[in-house]
Structure formats: structure tokens, C-alpha cells
Design brief:
167 residues; alpha+beta; Immunoglobulin-like; 5-stranded mixed sheet; 3 helices; 9 strands; globular
Amino acid sequence: MTRLLRTFVLRTALAGGVAPLATLAGAQGTTPAEHIQYVRIVARDYAFDAPGTLAAGIVTFHLVNQGSDLHQLSIIELGLGHTVKEFYEAMRAKGMPPAWSVTVGMTPTIPTNSEAFLSLRLTPGRYVLACMIPAKDGRSHVEKGMYLWVTAVSRSNPPAPAAAKKP
């Protein structure tokens, strides 16, 4: 009976019987005109090398850990009317992102000379790239300066290549 089931599934797949499922899965992905942006981010002790401006849409972040400590990447959307300085002060005071910010994605924690990937859709807005793990001395990596403010702009405004400075 198992062999008959496998044969049926294989013949159905070869005959195009699973095409509707493939079409449904593709509908949740990208449109033919949409471009997936690739962004390489280098983590060092305790800073990120990353562009300051990104195009809104699907972005694949490639985190490379060139530091001697463990690192990870969190992408946090700032609430309207809030600044990266307010984000930093909230992190320093409470050890966690403020309620007016939204974490939209994060990579796993990776050791030295490792890498991680994260793909997500960014809407136009302001984001903080931050390493949210604590250092061996108990202070967070954010407190040590491991955060960076980036802006996602609509496709009609092309991204600038220069890295953003911390305000």
C-alpha cells in the first residue's frame, strides 16, 4: 500500500498535480518586479559596519561576526516621534527595548567567525540595528555602543551608500 501511495504522489507531481500548491506558495513571496535587497553587516566588538539607508521592501541581512565576543542582530522599528537617543536611554535604564519600539526580526546569537541570515520586509521608516545580548561584564552590547540607526526609504528615493553615524 505504501508503494502505491508513493507512486501516486510521484506521478501526480510529475503530471503537474501540485502546481496549484506551488502557485499558492509563490503568491506569498515576491512579485516579479520586486527586487530583494542584500545587506552585509559586519559585527565587531562593539559596533556594526552597515549602510545607513536601505530601500524599503524585502531585505536579506547577512550578519558576519568578526568580533571576539558572541553577537546577534535585532532590527527594531522606532515609534513615530522617537529618536535613537531615546532608544539608547531606555535600553540603558531598563535593559530592554522601550514599549514604543517594535522588534521586527532578529538573528540567532553567533560565535566569532560565524554568520547568520535574516530576511524580512521593511516598510519605510526608522530602525535601530542592535546587538541585544549582555557582555561578560553584565553590560549590554547596546550600552557598549553596538547599535546603529538606519532609515528604510521608499523605492522612489534610492538609498544612499554612506553609513549612518549615531546621532
